[in-house]
Structure formats: structure tokens, C-alpha cells
């Protein structure tokens, strides 16, 4: 429910991933109506309160869904993008400079920075100008430049740092036209999903969170944010992270 007692309208993008799916469930638990957008097919156990949109994974594919929602005059209260990429088969995070390739670096930037900000561009016509709306992209603490003590993971770190800059820049622009909008990048904490799976052996058991636990925390952060905080980078407990 929103502060005005209406059913909360939520869009989850990247809804087929570990955190994306858990966020769909978390918002359903909170009584929201959820538009779930994913490249994957609709899960058989999707509750009726959620609507699943299967897309191609290109910007045009997402745009089609946003314009269909616009035709229904949908004005979201919360939009969360759980899109992100760290590894796939032969491509692992680069530990040494010798491992860097143009193709892998471009892929990191494309999925972790360019696609999220272009989705924000595509979402603009849907975003309410006067009623409160929070638009949150999942980022990563390793994208903090000032917090980087360990090195490694060049492309993932740099693309998540670029995401922070793109969101901060957009927040300054949107502040003029969308006064009740809050743009945010949130670090979910190390969460047990396919993305973190190959790296979990180095994580203490009490520092590896379930997707359900992280989704609950992310929704709580979204709930607590105000338009005055737009453009921030946040830890899963709602405390600010340095860029
Ligand atoms: N898990 C962690 O420990 C952790 C830690 C810090 C930050 N994060 C961030 O949290 C977010 C969610 O991660 P996760 O752990 O849930 O990972 P995940 O299970 O791998 O889900 C990521 C989702 O991103 C979407 N995606 C990936 N490549 C894409 C592409 N080329 N085009 C369009 N969409 C693409 C997919 O959504 P669909 O399949 O629905 O299309 C995919 O399922 C990411 O931004 C990640 O960087 C995760």
C-alpha cells in the first residue's frame, strides 16, 4: 500500500534473476501489483497479482513494454532494475591487467551501465511528475572508487562506478521536472544467486544473504528514500556509500 492507502504499483526489470524474482515476491507480499519484465519465460508458479512480460533483452524490447504500460496510463510508485552481469563461462572477472579484453569490457559497460541509463530514458514518459516514485537500480559496493582497496574485477567495478555517475547525473536533470522522483543505486549485499555463486567460498556464511532477505532489505531502502536524496548510492541497510 502507498501512503495514500492505494495499491502500490511496482515494475521489476530483470525479474528472472535471483534478486529480481525475490523482489517480485517481496512486493507481492507487501500487497503491490507487480509488472515483472524479463528475457525469461513466465514462471509456472507466478501469482495472479503479478503480470509477466517476456522481452528480447534489447532496449527496443523493454521500450515496447513501457509503451504498453503507458497506454494503460500506468504510473509506477516503485521501479527496480535488477539487471547486472559479472561472469559467464569463459568470461570471468579480470584479476590482472593481462586478462582485459575490449569485448569483455564493452559487455560490462553495456549491461551494467549503458542499458540501465537507457532504460531510465525509455521509462521517462511513465514517471509521475508530482506523486512520489522511487526508481532504483541495483549496483555494487565494488563500484565505489574510494572504497577500492583490493583491486581486481576491473570491468565489473568500473561499469558499476559508471552506473553511479550516470544515475547521479540523471538525478540532477530529473530534479527540475520530476520533483517527487528519487533515483537510487543500491548495493544488495552479497546474495546467494547465480551471479555470486562461483565466488561464495571466500564469503563468511553470515555475510552471504538469501535472495529473500536481500529483497526485503532493498524494498525497505526504497521505502525510506525521499526525493531530496535522489542520486545517492546506498548500502542494503539504507546507509550512504561513498562514490
Ligand atoms: N548477488 C550478489 O551478490 C550481488 C552483489 C552486488 C550487486 N549485485 C547486483 O544485483 C543485481 C542482481 O544480481 P543477481 O545476483 O540477481 O544476478 P542474476 O541472478 O545473474 O540476475 C541478473 C539479471 O540481470 C539481467 N541480465 C543479465 N544480463 C543481461 C543482458 N545482457 N541483457 C538484459 N538483462 C540482462 C537478467 O534478467 P532476466 O533474466 O530477467 O532478463 C538476469 O537474470 C545485479 O545488478 C548485480 O550486479 C548482486
TrEMBL record:
InterPro entries: Fungal_SecMetab_SDRs, NAD(P)-bd_dom_sf, SDR_fam. Pfam families: adh_short. PANTHER family: NAD(P)-BINDING ROSSMANN-FOLD SUPERFAMILY PROTEIN, SHORT-CHAIN DEHYDROGENASE/REDUCTASE. This is Short-chain dehydrogenase. It comes from Aliidiomarina sedimenti.
